[in-house]
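Good morning,

Attaching, inline, the backbone tokens for the sequence recovery test we're adding to the shared suite. The designed sequence is right after.
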């Protein structure tokens, strides 16, 4: 079993406080941090889980974006993300790329505490009363009203960022 950390990633906590974001912390077993297993284990609906996905352009210099989409949807990285970044090709950043950019492991990636990159929020996320996002590590999650995400610098709400799976 992986070590249980009961604190948010320090950069995440600093960002939440600096932006005046209202949130609650939810502790979880790090072995159960991946979305589907997390939702099943802790009784969250997949439509309440908001995944933070790092997208990367395929050309140099690499451009990154953090895309927030509901777990019940699929990020349109081939068209919408490329359009938003102004590039011809983009993909999901790899695990190593994500860790290097964010300092966060897959299963804990969150839009809070990132370097200065665009944050694209699928409009469907804002239709929820509350969403659960990563806490910057695999043993904490952040629960909040999705409108709070708009307090993040560089956050943009995008229609059609994701489509139903």
């Amino acid at each position: 079993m992986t070590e249980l950390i009961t604190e948010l990633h320090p950069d995440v906590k600093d960002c939440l406080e600096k932006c005046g974001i209202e949130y609650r912390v939810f502790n979880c077993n790090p072995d159960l941090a991946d979305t589907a297993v997390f939702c099943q284990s802790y009784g969250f609906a997949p439509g309440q889980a908001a995944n933070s996905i790092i997208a990367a352009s395929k050309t140099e210099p690499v451009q990154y974006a953090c895309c927030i989409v509901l777990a019940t949807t699929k990020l349109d990285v081939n068209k919408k993300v490329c359009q938003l970044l102004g590039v011809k090709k983009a993909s999901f950043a790899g695990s190593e790329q994500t860790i290097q950019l964010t300092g966060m492991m897959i299963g804990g990636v969150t839009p809070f505490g990132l370097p200065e990159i665009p944050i694209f929020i699928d409009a469907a996320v804002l239709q929820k009363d509350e969403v659960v996002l990563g806490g910057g590590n695999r043993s904490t999650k952040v629960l909040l009203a999705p409108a709070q995400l708009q307090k993040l610098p560089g956050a943009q709400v995008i229609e059609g960022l994701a489509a139903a799976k």
